[in-house]
Amino acid sequence: MTKLTAQEAKAFGKVGVLMGGLSAERDVSIMSGTGVLAALQSQGVDAHAFDPGQRSLAELAAEKFDRVFIALHGRYGEDGSIQGALELLGIPYTGSGVMASSVGMDKITTKILWLRENLPTPEYAVLGADSDLDAEGARLGLPLIMKPPHEGSTIGITKVSDKAGLKAAYDAAAALDDCVLAEEFVEGREFTVAVLGTGKTARALPIVEIVAPQGNYDYNNKYFTDDTKYFCPPQLDQAMQDEMQRLAVAAYRAVGCEGWGRVDVLLREKDQKPFLLEVNTSPGMTSHSLVPMAARATGVSYEELCVEILRTARLKLKK
């Protein structure tokens, strides 16, 4: 690992690491932010924790940060809310801007954009209180996936195997969101592709395959157990790896992502066709997280990755 010189570290100025927040992913965000904070401090960066879930925007302005690393996940941190506040305060920040963050957090809008660009994503339906669940279940086929379209970390997701389970799955997702996303279930392998950069410079890191117990990559198996297995690089021929990385970068660009992100991909077993699932504009940076894993496969340490991401911090609306 190459450590920053004192001059390089000083050039970042006073850095805030935003963590915690108000979303259902608060605990994971604290784990991510704690890791990022320690990594930046180990490199000599003048980095400080800031929790917008417990402190006000006035306090954020008073800290006079020269830039911030966003380690927030979910609502108010990954959906354009904090990004808009930082633009108004004039504080450069990591990751995507207001629009891309908002779009990326909305799985329905993301799908609409991807389909417009002829990018493959599972069939879906948007459900409300007056929707005919049986009819939509018949159209999409069972099993299907039911989820709140504005949550992350698999929160509120249910795999529905029969008609009897549709209503309970809908209610579970509707309790977290103002509409519900029903999605075709793609039987196959699960992968994720980290992307760094912006626009034409965006590049994919090595692919990570995720093999969870009983295929259930839920909140617990993501963050709190060692039962999930990861393979980087995965057992895929080079042509498929190239195609998956191409799709991930195209998906990232279609949403307008900047700096860094992660695109989740399913590979359908019956015909080996890849499908785009979602884009994460502020991915996890915990000990179990996938972007650091992909970076390590290229010889980039966790600390070096944090510094590389911090270098990209900027205001997006003020050119």
Automatic annotation (TrEMBL):
Keyword flag Ligase: yes
Subcellular location: Cytoplasm
Residues at the catalytic site: 25, 153, 289
MF terms in GO: ATP binding; D-alanine-D-alanine ligase activity; metal ion binding
Database matches in InterPro entries: ATP-grasp, ATP_grasp_subdomain_1, D-Ala_lig_Van_CS, D_ala_D_ala, Dala_Dala_lig_C, Dala_Dala_lig_N, PreATP-grasp_dom_sf
Family the UniProt entry places it in: Belongs to the D-alanine--D-alanine ligase family.
NCBIfam families attached to this UniProt entry: D_ala_D_alaTIGR (TIGR01205), PRK01372.1 (NF002378)
Function description: Cell wall formation.
Protein name: D-alanine--D-alanine ligase
